[in-house]
Amino acid sequence: MPTEFPFTFPSQFGNELPPDSPYGPSTAYGIPAVAPPLGELVGDGMGVKFTNWLASSFQGLKTGNNTTECPDSERHPMAALQYMRNKSDVIRASANQRPMIRLGDKNLTLVAELTGEMSCEYEELAADTGQARYVVRYENWIVDYIVNRTRVDEDLHLIIDPTPTERDWRTRWGGKIHTINVQRHEDGTSTVELIALSMREHAKKLLFAANPFFAPELQIPKMWILPGPIKTVLFMSMFVNLARLFVPGLSFITNAFNPAAWLNPLGPESLFNVDPLNWPIQVAFVNPILDTSRWGVLGATWTDWHSATMDLLKDAGAILRCYTWLDEDADSPHEEMQDVIDVLPEGISGPLTALIRPRRNCIVFRVEDWSSHEGPSGTPFDGLLNTIGVTLDDLFTSVFIDGDSGQTLDGSPLFDIDNQNPLFATLLGTAPKPPKVVWRDTQFSAIVSATHTLHKGPVKTLMTGGKSPAIVNELITFGIKYGLSQLSTMINAAIGTFVNTAFEMPGTPGLEELYQGQLSDTVMAWQRLTDPVRALWTGDLAYQEHFERGSGTAYTLAGWLTIREARYKTRAYRSFRATVRNGWPWILDRDARLGERTGWEFDQVIYVDQIMALKRGWNRKKPVLSTVSVGDDQDADDLFARGMRVLQSIYSLFGAFLGEGTLFG
Questions:
Q1: Scanning 164, 278, 346, 560, which has the fewest C-beta atoms within 10 Å of its C-beta?
Q2: Torsion angle, alpha carbons of 141, 142, 144, 148, to 10
Q3: What's the predicted TM-score (pTM) here?
Q4: How far is Cα 8 from Cα 26, in angstroms, rounded to an integer?
Q5: Are 224 and 207 in contact (CB under 8 A)?
Q6: Which 3 state secondary structure label does DSSP give 424?
Q7: Crossing angle of helices 346-355 and 335-342, rounded to 10°
Q8: Which residues, 6 or more positions from 364, have their beta carbon under 8 angstroms from its beta carbon?
């Protein structure tokens, strides 16, 4: 038998072997005889690492007054200038350093830091799932763990911090490894490619239940409908549906007929899930009293979060982010709850601040309003005013007024890329403010590439239809059948006069039944409109006609909407898309964040739109290149159709309350 030694190994390496183990003691001279779990080799939760960041090893820059603050610009102007310039250089350089890449296990516990990659790139999208691609040589030490020591149905996560010396959940990219490609190349080398989908993909795998408090087999009412400010509505809906999945009692009820979900429902880990801060998937708290986002109506019947919220978020100028929070983060992702706590006395706010931190590594969904609309009161009433003003602008202003916003910034006109002039929003005091971040088109511009597209070739005449309005068909039917019935009466009367008695000609009472709709959909069944502005400017060789299918009924509200949609599809318009360098002068995730309204200059005109994508990439031969895509290369939605969606949602809400088709009907 092996000799017993008095030395023990630190407890973070796992439990020691029992005394009667055939493998002998777990340690010998402080060296473990049994390999500990990979993620427990480092006690600070960082996982396995072979490098050490030196950011905490240096002291702050000391100035003349022995502080790290900026010198007095009046007493030491040159020192203040040098301080600000050096600080700017450090911030810009830190924004372009190699990101830190770490591997997380199925429970988001950090396993190891990944190094030695051949190339890596990752992207975060405002309205969809982003993707990351990480390529490493097959000889890398972590490959065996990823490929061979992890089951194919066991999750792995990729966690990327763009600024390793300032790791924060606000800038962190997190995703689930979706595909692992082990490749052998023609030159004899082998590589492993990891492809990960961002955590926002969870929004496509989570559902809004029609009734989250009952099992799917019993759903009364038939639809989940909730009106109000977008942020509050989505927070409440997401929170209730996450509780349906994670709270032991509620999840037991909702899975009454799903025995596979009964595994350990009363275990200690499940009981902890009564606390929302212990859920692996959380939703950031929203203060409904200060929610100024646009109003809308969420309606869903077992619809995934992404599909149910896509139009609502786009119309409101908001986005749905999914952040990855780790225990190492300094503050809680529930910022609006922290704002409420900060109002309390310091003796109370301090302990409460520690209590609102998540209890574990998790992902946090958060609805962010980047519409830049502001109101007079700072309450949900501003969101209602914003909804009214924007809807009126969508219905009327977008039809009669050009998209020049009427605002200027440093003498340059602002042009809304959505072709919207906020006339009614300005009257109600909720017009969007000019952007604070503008990329200028100068000799030393940070714009890497820009595409200013002019879409020409409008169509002069628009058509729709195929069916007559119902009232027209009914009038035709009434007129013909009435005429045939009168003819039948005249025939009977004439024959009765000849024989001097009452006489009924066989078949005459059913004469009106000869008409069975033969002339339906022949009068006012086709609708045609020629745009006078296009007819004036397009010229003799203009595109003459365009037919839009739509509802198929002419000269109705639906018909006019179809003509409006056809007019929008065949319009002449401008679009813009740009990619810029990070740090010149604006720094991504510091000065400008995903979804924020920014501007870019082209030909002395500032175009305004939201940041739709952030991307970083590097390889062995190239440094980190950060790009931002401002605007979308897809056609924007028709503003008039967007306004009609708001009216349609209001109609659907009242229809549901009245039992029309969705709730009880």
A1: 346
A2: 180
A3: 0.73
A4: 8
A5: no
A6: helix
A7: 160
A8: 169, 282, 283, 284, 322, 323, 324, 325, 333, 334, 358
pLDDT (tens digit, 9 = 90+) per residue, 250-304? 665 666 555 555 544 445 555 566 788 889 999 999 999 988 888 888 888 888 9
Residue 260 Cα to chain centre, angstroms:
32
Tokens of 494: 């004439």
Nearest to 464 by CA among 370, 340, 555: 555
Q: What is the mean pLDDT of residues 434-446?
A: 81
Question: What distance in Å separates the CA atoms of residue 113 and residue 115, rounded to the nearest whole number?
Answer: 7
Give the pLDDT mean for 552-558: 79
With the CA atoms of 128, 134, 135 and 136 taken in that order, what torsion angle do they form, in degrees rounded to the nearest 10?
-160
Fill in the DSSP letter of residue 62.
Answer: P
Read off the tokens for 345. 């006395």
Q: How far apart are CA 83 and CA 79, in angstroms?
A: 6
Identity of residue 241: N
Say what the pLDDT of residue 350 is: 80
SS3 for 70?
coil
Q: Which of 93, 61, 63 is nearest to 80 (CA)?
A: 63
Amino acid at 527: Q
Concatenate the DSSP letters of all residues of 558-611 into one string: HHHHHHHHHHHHT--EEEEEEEEETTSS--BTTTB-TT-EEEEEETTEEEEEEE
Least confident of 215-224, 384-393, 588-597: 384-393
CA gyration radius, the chain:
33
Pull the structure tokens for residue 133: 């691609």
47 in Cβ contact with 102 (< 8 Å)? yes
In single-letter form, the type of residue at position 384 comes to L
Residues in the chain: 665
CA distance to 208, 587, 636, 641, per residue, from 416 (Å): 34, 23, 12, 17
CA distance 616 to 611: 14
Average pLDDT of span 422-439: 72
Please tell me the distance from the alpha carbon of residue 416 to that of residue 407, in angstroms, as a whole number. 10
In angstroms, the CA 491 to CA 291 distance is 76
Nearest partner of 227 among 313, 294, 285, 318, judged by Cα: 294
Convert the pLDDT of each residue in 480-536 to its tens digit. 888 888 887 777 666 655 555 555 555 455 666 777 878 888 888 888 888 887 888
Dihedral sign of CA atoms 543, 549, 551, 556 in order: positive
Over 80: is that where the pLDDT of 399 sits? no
Contacts of the segment 519-524: beta carbons below 8 A, 24+ positions apart: 519/476, 519/480, 520/468, 520/473, 520/476, 520/477, 521/466, 521/467, 521/468, 521/473, 522/468, 522/476, 523/468, 523/472, 523/476, 524/468, 524/469, 524/472, 524/554, 524/555
Helix (H, G, I), strand (E, B) or coil at 257: coil
Compute the average pLDDT of residues 9-21: 43
Cβ–Cβ under 8 Å, residues 341 and 287: no
The two structure tokens encoding residue 419: 């072709």
Average pLDDT, the chain: 77
The Cα–Cα gap between 197 and 200 comes to: 8
Tokens representing residue 311 in the block: 């139009």
Asked if 420 and 406 count as a contact pair (C-beta separation under 8 A), the reply is no
Question: How far is 531 from 506, CA to CA, in rounded Å?
Answer: 56
